[in-house]
Automatic annotation (TrEMBL):
PANTHER family: UTP--GLUCOSE-1-PHOSPHATE URIDYLYLTRANSFERASE (PTHR43197:SF1). This is UTP--glucose-1-phosphate uridylyltransferase. The keyword NADP does not apply. It comes from Kineococcus halophytocola. Belongs to the UDPGP type 2 family. Keywords: Nucleotidyltransferase, Transferase. It catalyses: alpha-D-glucose 1-phosphate + UTP + H(+) = UDP-alpha-D-glucose + diphosphate. It holds the Pfam family NTP_transferase.
Length: 308
């Protein structure tokens, strides 16, 4: 096994965003458009994820992409013709919004090839990440800018070393939808020591109600483990299986802690939750929020749209 630098205080600079999935739950919309480009109000979901990374100081971003994902690259690249047109019209507000995504971060891209699971997608990032700790952000979870989850995870890494996983508490009847933690308190509020992880357990077999959400701060030791990780559930290489090894073993870079997140999170992973996320975020907007909240109240009070 390659020896890793496990200095707890080492700066975290890089973010990895797996974006190679086909988005089949949103067909036919995702037949020709990546699910990551679905708008949440007027901003693609993927931009929220990159913005979150940048707020935590992670300005080197690697996207793991696949076929039909070219529009992701186009979104974070310049559109000279559009910018010239907006400038000629004197529309500085829209010009600033267009240029915002271009200037956010240094974004790199690599293709996953065969989609063999989240663990495989993370392994593809090794050449870019190198021998550094890095954050993995999944695009189905949008974390509110007012709740700096990544900052908390980086602080835990600086104190304890190893890897850090974000959890949330969920009802018992929902735990089978998530990876689940075997964990114990550390004495610090909302920080736990992880001794085991179970991928989507049956309700009666779940060791806790702590569900993994899509944020991971990984020590580079994970790459050695992933190389030895066989396919798991669904015939895919599961990141959860690699984290189980890191949590239960000893060695440079081993050990896993968790941060229990209690802030605002918007799930864009299925159609109903996606619509809820759009409504929640739109209702807080200064430009349309007031009118939307008024209309929603009237709509609900009228009973419109209800099934007889």
């Amino acid at each position: 096994m390659t020896e890793r630098d496990e200095r707890p205080g080492r700066t975290v600079r890089k973010a990895v965003i797996p974006a190679a999935g086909q988005g089949t739950r949103f067909l036919p919309a995702t037949k020709a458009m990546p699910k990551e480009m679905l708008p949440v109000v007027d901003t693609p979901a993927i931009q929220y994820i990159v913005e979150e990374a940048v707020r935590a100081g992670l300005t080197d971003v690697l996207m793991i992409t696949g076929r039909n994902k070219r529009s992701l690259e186009d979104h974070f690249d310049r559109n000279v013709e559009l910018e010239v047109g907006l400038e000629a019209k004197g529309d500085s507000a829209k010009l600033a919004r267009v240029q915002e995504s271009t200037d956010l971060a240094q974004v790199h891209y690599v293709r996953q090839g065969d989609p063999k699971g989240l663990g495989h997608a993370v392994a593809v990032a090794e050449q870019h990440v190198g021998d550094e700790p890095f954050v993995v952000l999944l695009g189905d979870d949008i974390v509110d800018a007012r709740d700096p989850l990544l900052d908390a995870m980086i602080a835990v890494r600086e104190e304890h070393g190893g890897s850090v996983v974000a959890f949330m508490e969920v009802p018992e009847d929902q735990i089978h939808l998530y990876g689940c933690a075997v964990a114990e308190p550390t004495g610090t509020t909302d920080v736990v020591k992880v001794s085991g992880l179970v991928e989507k357990p049956k309700r009666e077999e779940a060791p806790s109600n702590l569900a993994i959400i899509g944020r991971y701060l990984l020590d580079p030791a994970v790459f050695d483990v992933l190389r030895e990780t066989p396919p798991g559930k669904g015939g895919e290489i599961q990141l959860t299986d690699a984290l189980q090894v890191l949590a239960s073993g000893d060695g440079p870079g081993y050990g896993v802690h968790g941060v229990v997140f209690r802030g605002r999170r918007y799930d864009t992973g299925d159609k109903l939750d996606y619509i809820k996320a759009v409504v929640r975020l739109a209702s807080e907007r200064s430009d349309i929020g007031s009118d939307l909240r008024e209309w929603l109240g009237e709509f609900v009070a009228s009973g419109a749209g209800s099934q007889d």
